[in-house]
UniProtKB/TrEMBL annotation, chains A, B:
InterPro entries: Isoprenoid_synthase_dom_sf, Polyprenyl_synt, Polyprenyl_synt_CS. The keyword DNA repair does not apply. Supplies octaprenyl diphosphate, the precursor for the side chain of the isoprenoid quinones ubiquinone and menaquinone. Its EC number is 2.5.1.90. This is Octaprenyl diphosphate synthase. GO terms for molecular function: all-trans-octaprenyl-diphosphate synthase activity; metal ion binding. It catalyses: 5 isopentenyl diphosphate + (2E,6E)-farnesyl diphosphate = all-trans-octaprenyl diphosphate + 5 diphosphate. SUPFAM superfamilies: Terpenoid synthases. Belongs to the FPP/GGPP synthase family. Its cofactor is Mg(2+). Pfam families: polyprenyl_synt. Keywords: Magnesium, Metal-binding, Transferase.
Amino acid sequence: MVTIVNAPSLPSAAAAAAAETPDAGPSSTHRVALDALLDLVGDDLTRVNQTILDRMHSPIALIPQLAGHIVAAGGKRLRPLLTLAAARLVGYEGDRHISLAACIEFLHTATLLHDDVVDESDKRRGRDTANAIWGNKPSVLVGDFLFARAFELMVEDGSLEVMGILARASAVISEGEIHQLLTSNNIETVEEDYIQVVGAKTAALFAAATRIGGVAAERPRAELDALDAYGRNLGIAFQITDDFLDYSAREAELGKSIGDDFRDGKLTLPVIHAIAHGDDEERAFWRRCLEEQDFSDPHGEADLAHAMTLLARHGALEETVRRAHAYAEAARRALDIFPDSRIKTILTEVVDFSVERAY
Amino acid sequence: MVTIVNAPSLPSAAAAAAAETPDAGPSSTHRVALDALLDLVGDDLTRVNQTILDRMHSPIALIPQLAGHIVAAGGKRLRPLLTLAAARLVGYEGDRHISLAACIEFLHTATLLHDDVVDESDKRRGRDTANAIWGNKPSVLVGDFLFARAFELMVEDGSLEVMGILARASAVISEGEIHQLLTSNNIETVEEDYIQVVGAKTAALFAAATRIGGVAAERPRAELDALDAYGRNLGIAFQITDDFLDYSAREAELGKSIGDDFRDGKLTLPVIHAIAHGDDEERAFWRRCLEEQDFSDPHGEADLAHAMTLLARHGALEETVRRAHAYAEAARRALDIFPDSRIKTILTEVVDFSVERAY
């Protein structure tokens, strides 16, 4: 009954770069950073994509169909690129980074599938989510499959150290996701909670992605820790910027919707800052919108406009950008122990991209 | 904001045995098999339970709360018991089987959490499911956490062979679950599909559980394969019996509801057999009930009664029991290569229990 179909094709490195940089506006300098990274490790990324295609195969045709939908959805491949780049930075010349980068993408994809189920999302990057097309059930189970497949790849790689890093990261990611559930719709959430959530749900995989690039090359502990710190701080800067963009005028200028987090009642850094500095009346407003999700018009437009006013009143967006830049600076500094090189320059520019991108 | 709470306590080995054997009726002989197994490895099981408690800890209090709810729900601990028993059978004297058995239970629990979300179940063993209490979101994410934690335990154990076995089993289990989704509500499903589904979703973990007991003891390949065959055939026999019981008069006598699979449109062995031997009119009946889920009364009672008549007409329940016994016999035979011992006798009786239990 079950037939095997060809797995969907994946975008080439060049197409991935183009998909990731739809605008040549304010971020064009940083587009250069990602292009340069793809120039340097594009051949490796092609091999990673092939490994992903090969290893999401299953006699159950729905698995490569559904997994292919999300894997081919035009993501940046930022996390596997970080593994490739880290390996390059430390002069690694073997092949292990290819399958390790594929592992990272599998873990990330599994997380996205489960996230979309948990968030009841119907769109990701403008396309229908897997759960919107196939329903929650296969999305949960294909996520499980990809997670297991990632560990199979690790076993083939054969490093207990890598496996320990990625098993730990996986546990931390789910802790972060659960912690985030608990902060949602809760205006008592403070910045410390937020940074813990972001450090776990986003930055743990960035840190693991860069660290295992160094582990593949069997580099000394100090270099592994530096790669870890680079990835971790980059990941936090990246996520803070994501959360900033949801309230950003620049996002609105690009024709993207803003305020999704507001309508979902997510406690991200901009609102946490505004709440911390607001008076009782403002607090009542945030409670009504974020906790009770009781909006004064059907789409919450008037409330979002008022929220933007409060964010401006307290300089919350500027403060959010400042935080992102502080983590970005820590990421850059983490690279200090490595000698100057083309790839080191590019990794520095990737940090700039992470905080200055408009998408 | 997040506070740490004490993890819930787990039932003792004796309480677990009692919980699993609520009736002293037709299964009392087989209750003796499980009691005997608990007598032999009860101390080990106590240590497994302690490891489970220790390792489901997280600073996010919801994790041990939710995981504890399902872990402590009075399951048989059959799968971890199989790891302990397999290790005992091959004369293992170390400690690795304790954490490996805990791994198996974590993987099983993760699967149950996701299953209950996928099946939209609100009861398991008569108690509210985690998703019924806390919702789908934390159930999916705590499942992910337990899965990751299982791999952390494997890394600590340090055997790539064990990790390979369990990563592979995990991938196969999710393939089986997805395959099962595709057979649901599809009366074209044939016995081969069913056996593939059961072999993957249930028997793969039984086989892995017994095999790693032998791996811990570093036994030769032939013994590992025998343990694997024992677990695999036992698992298939166990699941076929489960599916039989859903249409069993004995189940009804015990006051348990029957026909859940019928109402859900699951293509289990009894109906697959009846459909294969039915005429066009019967086929139309099965299509209406199982595919279209269009019942003639609100709870499908009249249709269930007719389904039972059709099962009886084609001897489908007897045939199902015959199949279960054939797999049970294969499980028993797999033990032939091991010298006679008390634990071997008990493992044989566990097979009898799996096909003759009334619960």
